[in-house]
Amino acid sequence: MEVLSRLRTDGTFNQEFPLSLLREGKKNECYSFDLKSATDRWPLSVMFALMSCMFGPTLASSIVNSSLGLNTFLVGKPIVKRMSEVAFLCGQPLGYYSSWSLFALSHHYVVWLAAKRAYPQRTTPFKDYALLGDDILITDALVAQQYRILLDKLGVTISEAKSIISETGCVEFAKRFWVKSMQIDLSPVSLRLLLSCRTTIGLCSIRNKYPVSVSTLQRLGGAGFRVRSLSRLNLNVGKD
Q: Which UniProt keywords apply (predicted)?
């Protein structure tokens, strides 16, 4: 997790930070890929290769193989006809302690490898992407193409119906929807958040998450026209 906190392209500790860096560049060619069951299909070999490069094969074997690859289970009826011994060859068990960090780091590794294959002579780190777990946004066409090829070789499927490929900066990242070079937020407000509008804390939560005006907050809170007019009048008097 400490390694993830140092990656400016990772949104584990701040979901909007990597996207804000891309928004500054006003990118138009954007590739928001949606991965099908990524945590279930991600190969252990990728995680092992990354851990080996960072910490050596011994620790990598302890983290990946001992905990996942060599951790066998007996499966019987009614799942299978005969009692069988199975082990993880891809994916990770739900609730495994280092599941998120292992997957996120190895996902970054695949993006870096795609960038290396797209630009073999490049000497600076590739930063034209934002990543949060299995959420990925790439703003480079060549890297996005190589990323597709790598995922196909790894057996991880991209959902074309849910992915967004745009030439005008339309993206979906961390459940937020942005358009026009990622400058305008068109993210829908959840029903749960709208139901919390009757409380002060709920209104503050909406204000922190979305750029809404005071008048809109008052309307969401149930204030009528007269209350909003008095509030607007008081604000103008305060400015004078």
A: Mitochondrion
